[in-house]
Design goal:
By secondary structure, the protein is of the alpha+beta class. Helix content is 20%, strand content 27%.
Length: 583
């Protein structure tokens, strides 16, 4: 159960579509007995908006069909068995947008893991409505920046035209569910954790606590806990103890040289905060006029693996970014209203990082290093808008002038105007952001390389949690492999000759950021990329072939990475190759 908060009725700018019907894949979902996919509302409804409490229930899917006009290998048709235990399903998801009737976000849950668009197999997938964003580019921009800056586990996405029970719902952004899973947040399911800092009320099956210092509202996403909050539950206790230890150290007088750096990965937090503040994301600070919530975080994620620090990410929820400001109770100014918001976050937890010269040095170095990536965003917006503009009239969005008045339908003209406003805002925001950083006179020589954390700063799970890791990290030999790639074949195949494309050769050849995979026969190929700590940065199926090319461009490489390939040929022969990608 979620109470529809103030954000529910403070519907701002709204969504559109970003790709034309002919240019993007089509997703068709049929539910059992054509049942409508919507939340159950316990209170009054107004123009499709629930003014009370909503309950999200899964609806059985009787057919799922994905058609990609650009790549038939992505096509997928599923007709689940009628047994309830073997049911694919769909439900409404989200917070404020869940209670809005015109364009809701959805979560798809397959009975068996499925790979969509070549991504790692998983049961859960998300369809973002982008209802508040008239350009439908804000989430895409944030994900792009995360990939360019090398922020681990940044979601990928694909826009699709969505039909449910034959009715066109609009252009949606298909992306991964933020969860612990191989290819997503790939941490140990028992000795690691994934948490979300978010001010919304928990649903009945969610566990939430408040940190000892800074009043961080913390949802435990993993390890899975089926009961409500219980401080004596071992799974809950060690996650809470770890967060409390971090916030306690951050609030001490000895900060930042009191051991807090052993608990937090400052590089990831510098990337995370830089992206959030540069794009001025409302949900990062939740700048609502209700002072009880002012500055509280929303949709902020953090994770920790066994024996590591706490890392920031993944990025999520940016449809209320780009200069949204509050203008009083029950009212907001639209997107692009402000370009000069302070680069220092509003919440005390993130503000404390400004008192650490090491964090600031990393923040400034990232800003300097990625200027070309930041300056390329207007062209990236154009590339999306050019594909979208012919179809935006088919999409609904929130009515910015009448928040309770229902949705409006965009036109090509209003869409093009909004895209122009966003690009103008971005250029002005870049200027303001740069001026603020310059005025801080940050000393980048204060930066340090963080070493392995000490054991004293790592609270341990209870003994009942000491099970083997489900992580797909490579072995130590993979992490330390030499510049020469290696291969093996379960059937004793020939030694590979790298760089040759002849059918009789097999192996892996890396040139710059381009990876070529050769096998002696058509093979199903899976590729994974790890950093030197064994963290998964990419994992996915590349399709079937004997000569497959993949680019690591989107990973934002700044350090050496390890690439591991597993391939299975039509004859049943398996191949394993590994090599290095250099920055």
């Amino acid at each position: 159960m979620k109470n529809i908060t103030l954000k529910s009725v403070l519907v701002l700018m709204a969504c559109s579509s970003v790709l034309s019907l002919a240019a993007i894949p089509e997703m068709r979902i049929t539910t059992q007995n054509s049942q409508e996919v919507k939340p159950t509302c316990s209170g009054m409804e107004f123009n499709g908006m629930c003014m009370g409490t909503t309950t999200m229930k899964y609806i059985k899917v009787t057919e799922f069909k994905l058609t990609d006009p650009n790549n038939s290998r992505n096509n997928l048709t599923l007709t689940p068995e009628p047994a309830p235990s073997e049911s694919d399903s769909i439900r409404v998801r989200g917070n404020s947008t869940a209670g809005i009737g015109d364009k809701r976000p959805y979560r798809i849950k397959f009975d068996k893991k499925q790979s969509l668009f070549g991504r790692e197999k998983a049961k859960s997938w998300v369809l973002l409505a982008n209802y508040y964003d008239q350009t439908l580019t804000l989430n895409a921009i944030a994900f792009r920046l995360g990939q360019k800056l090398g922020l681990a586990y940044t979601p990928s996405s694909q826009h699709v035209n969505l039909y449910i029970n034959g009715s066109y719902k609009g252009i949606y952004q298909l992306t991964e569910q933020i969860q612990v899973n191989p290819g997503r947040v790939d941490v140990d399911t028992l000795k690691g954790f994934l948490v979300e800092f978010d001010y919304h009320d928990p649903e009945s099956d969610e566990v939430k606590f408040t940190s000892a210092k800074y009043s961080l509202p913390v949802f435990i996403k993993s390890p899975e806990v089926t009961s409500s909050f219980n401080a004596n539950n071992s799974k809950i206790k060690w996650v809470k103890d770890t967060i409390d230890l971090l916030t306690n150290k951050m609030s001490e007088n000895g900060f930042p040289t009191n051991g807090y750096r052993d608990m937090i990965d400052l590089e990831s937090y510098a990337k995370y905060v830089l992206i959030q503040q540069l794009i001025d994301n409302f949900d990062f600070n939740s700048k609502v006029p209700d002072q009880s919530q002012y500055g509280l975080p929303g949709s902020n994620f953090a994770y920790k693996d066994a024996g590591t620090r706490i890392y920031a990410g993944p990025l999520w929820d940016f449809d209320l970014a780009a200069g949204v400001t509050s203008s009083g109770a029950m009212s907001f100014n639209p997107h692009y209203s402000s370009t000069t918001e302070p680069i220092k976050p509003k919440h005390a937890f993130y503000q404390r990082l400004w008192d650490d010269p090491v964090f600031l040095a990393k923040f400034k170095k990232l800003w300097d290093k990625h200027q070309s990536d930041f300056n390329a965003i207007p062209a990236f917006i154009d590339s999306l808008a050019n594909a979208l503009k012919d179809n935006v009239a088919n999409n609904k969005c929130a009515n910015p002038s009448n928040l309770l008045g229902g949705a409006i339908t965009l036109t090509t003209q209003t869409y093009n105007t909004e895209v122009g406003k966003l690009k103008t805002w971005w250029n002005s925001r870049m200027s303001s952001f740069g001026q603020q950083i310059t005025s801080m006179n940050i000393d980048t020589s204060k930066d340090i390389e963080q070493t392995q954390p000490s054991s004293s700063s790592r609270p341990s799970p209870s003994s009942s949690s000491q099970l083997s890791s489900s992580s797909s990290s490579p072995s130590s030999s993979s992490r330390l492999s030499s510049s020469s790639s290696r291969s093996s074949s379960s059937s004793g195949g020939t030694t590979p000759v790298f760089g040759h494309s002849q059918p009789q050769q097999h192996g892996l050849f890396v040139r710059g950021r381009i990876v070529n995979i050769y096998t002696q026969e058509p093979s199903s190929v899976k590729l994974s990329v790890f950093d030197l700590r064994g963290k998964t940065l990419f994992s996915g199926n590349l399709g079937t072939g004997s000569n497959i090319t993949w680019s690591s461009e989107g990973l934002g490489i700044s350090k050496m990475l390890i690439v591991v390939v597993e391939a299975k040929g039509e004859s049943g022969r398996t191949y394993k190759f590994s090599g290095r990608i250099l920055p």
